[in-house]
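Batch manifest, entry 17 of 40.
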Amino acid sequence: MVAKKYFPVFLIVSLAAAASGAQLTITTSSVPTATQYQSYTTALSATGGTPPYLWSVVQSTNVSLPEGMTLNASTGVVSASQVNGQGGYEVTIQVTDSASPSHNVATAAIDFGVYSDTSLGGCQVFPVDSIYNQRVDRLPVDTTPSHQISSGALGSPLHPDFGHGFYPFPGGIPWMRVPANQPDTNVYIGGGQIDDAGTYPWPFPAGTNLLIEGTSYGADESDHHTLILQSSVNNITGPQTGPCTLYETYQSNAVPTLFDAGTNKWSMGAGLHYVLNSNELATSESTLDQGAQDSAGIPVMPLLLRYSDVPLLAQHPLRITFAGSTNWFDWPATGCCSSSGPPQGLLYRLKASVNWAATCPVGVYPQAATLLQTLQQYGAYMSDHGSNGYIQGVPDVRWDDNDLACIKKFHLSDLEVVDNSVLQVSDISGQTKPYVAPATLAGGTAGNLYNATFSAVGGNPQSINWTVSSGALPAGLVLNASQGSISGLLSPTATGTFSFGMTATDTSTGYSSDVQSFSIAVIPFIVTIQGNPPPPVAITVTSIPPGLSVTVDGSTFVTPQRFTWTQGSSHSLSTIPAQGSGTRYVFGNWSDGGALSHAIAVPASAAVYTAGFTTQYLLTRLSTPAGFGTIGAGPTSVDGYYNSGTQVQISAAPAEGHAFTGFTGDLSGTANPQTLTMSAVRAVTANFSGVPRLAVTLARNGNFARGSDSGMYLIAVRNAGTGPSSGTVSVKEMLPPGVTLLAMAGPGWSCNAAERSCTRGDGLAAGSSFPPIDAIVGIAPNAEAFLMDAVTVSGGGAAPVTATLPVALSH
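Output type: C-alpha cells
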C-alpha cells in the first residue's frame, strides 16, 4: 500500500526529469563544520533538471538547520552571522527546478555539524557554598529503605544520553550564552518556584535564532528545553563585572508553534531564572512544587557534561534519569509528583570500590573516563523521568560515541545513594553548611611527633574554622584552626585512647557542622636492651613545614616519619627540590648539612633530620583588555613565584592612547604603583581603558571674495582616540580680521553666533564623528588678500586641539 501511495509521484518526477535532460540531483554530500557563536557560510549545489532552482529545508522531518543558520532559497547558500546551534543535525534539503508543466524535486540528507562552545564566559554558576559545587565522595551513604534503587533496575547499564548527533537531531540538551544587551522578547511561562505564571521580558532570541532542544522544527510531544546563560556585560566572553543569569524553560508543543512574530512572544509551559550569585531555589516554602522547568525543579544547564570538561576536568554534579514512578521530591529538588517509588532529587554516586580507571582508562576512553570520575566525585541528581541510568550532556560533534559507550560496562548496581542532608540549610536554598568527613586516625607513640588533617565538605572552604568541640586532644598536640590539622610532639606521659569531637564552622555564614567523633590511640615508647648489640636508635625524618614528601631508602613518605634503626647503619635521605603549585615549597637544606640527596650513618642516640624548605607563593598578573597596557612586578620572577613575605611592587603601564583605571583582585584602587605582600597566592589584574582624542578640521566652501556674504566653513569634529568622549564638547571659531561670522549651526550642536561657539553634551565613540558645523561668514571689502582662520575644539575628556586653514580671497 505504501508503494502504491508513492509510485505515481515517483513516475511523474522521473518523466519530467527525462523530458528536461539529466535527472535533478543534489551534488553536495558534505559541508564544513561550524563553530558556535561564529559566522558561517557554505553553498549547496545541484545538477540536472531545469534551472533556476528553489532550495528549502524539509520541515516534516522535524530537524532544522543549526539555529542561527538560514538557507537562501534562490542561491542555495547556507549562512549565519552567528551560529547558535550545538551538535550534529541531519538536515533534509530539498531542491525544486523550473521544469514545466511539472517541477522536478530532489532531496538529500546532509549532516550539519557544530563545535559547541561550552565555556562559561567567566560566569560564576552559583556561589562556592552551593550544593551544586560540592564534591560528594566523602558524604555518608543514604540507607533510607524508600530511597534505594529498585531491585529490578539494578542490572540496567549506565547510558550516555548524548553524543555526536546526526540521530537525525543533536544528541543531548543544548544551551547558549547571550550578552547583557541581548534584546528581550516576551516569554510567557506557566509558572515556577521563583517566577509566577505570566509574561516576562527575557533575553531570548526571536524565531529560529533561539537554541531549543529538538531543533527549531522540533515535533509535538517531545522535550523542548531552552537554556540561556546571560552575561553581566555586553559580550559573552567576560570578564564578568556582576552576576550572570540563567534562564531555563520547558515546553512539549511543536517548536514552530511556540513563537508569535507579531507579538514577539514565546509561549513556554514552565520556566524560571536563577541569579547565579544567589543560592535561591524557590521564593518560599509555599512555592515548592508549583511547576518547574524540569520534573524535579533542579537546574539543567549546570548538571550537563560539557565537552570542555574532557579530560577529567568536570567539577560539577551530573544529571541522571530513572524510569517512573517516583514519589515526591528530596532537597535540592523543588517539585515532582505523588505516586510510588523513590523521590526525585536523590543524589547518586559511583561507589568508591568501583575501579573505573581499570575498565575505561583515560588514555583510551577520555570522554567516558571523565563522566565516570565525575560520577564518583560529584555524583548525579535524579532530575527527570526517563530510561534507567541515562546521563545527559551537551551536544557536540566531537563526542565519540564509541568512547562514551564504555560507561555501559557499569550498571546501576555500581551506584549508591548519597545522604546530602548533612549539608542542607533550607528547603528553598542551595546553600550548604560544613560537614566533617569521618576518618580513622593513625595511632601515635608517646614522645614522638604526630600530625593529622581533617577534611570538610560544604560551606565556603576559604572561611572554615575548626574547633575541638568535645573531649580533648592528646597532650602535646595543637590544632591549627584555619587548616584543620593537628600536630606536635606527643607528651611522654600521653598514653591510652583519646576521644574528641571536631566541628567545622563557616565563618562567612555562621553555619556549623554537626560534631564528628575521632580518637587517637597513643602507645608508650619502650626501648628494649638485648645483650651486647647496640640498642636501636629512634630517627625522625621531618620537614619544615611538615607534611612534605621525603624519600628514605628509596621509599617516599610524608613527613614526619619515625624509624628505628641500628646504630652505625647507613641510610639514604633525599627530597624533591620544589613541591606544590600555587603555594610551593623549595628545598633549602638538611639540618645535618647534607646535600639534597645524601647518606647518613645512624648515631648512638635519637636524632631528628629535618629538610628545610622555603615557602613560595605564585603571583598571577593579568591586564585587561588585552593590548591596552601591561602590568609589571618588581623584583621580577622567572616563573611568578616569590618567597613568603616578599614585598612586590606592582605597576601598570597603559599603552599609547590608553589609560589605567585601577587594580582588582588582591589589589584595589588607582594608586600606581602599589606594594603587595606575598603572604598567600596572589592574583592582580590591571584594568585599562581607551581615552578620547578629539580632532577638528576646517574645510572651505562657498564664495570667499571681498564684499561677499556667502563664504562658508565646514567644521568637522571626530574622535581619533581609543575610548569614547564624555561631557560637554565645545567648538570655538577664531576668525581673522576682516571676516564676520553671520551664522553657525550643525545637527545636534547648540551654537551661539555672537560668541562664535557651538557646544554639545553627548559622547562620541572612538573612530566616530559628530555631524559637521556650517559657519557662514561675510568678507569686508577691504579685507587682506590672504587670511588665516583657526578653530579650537575642547572638552569631552580630551585635550584641546586647534586647526588652521589659510584662505586666499578672490576679487
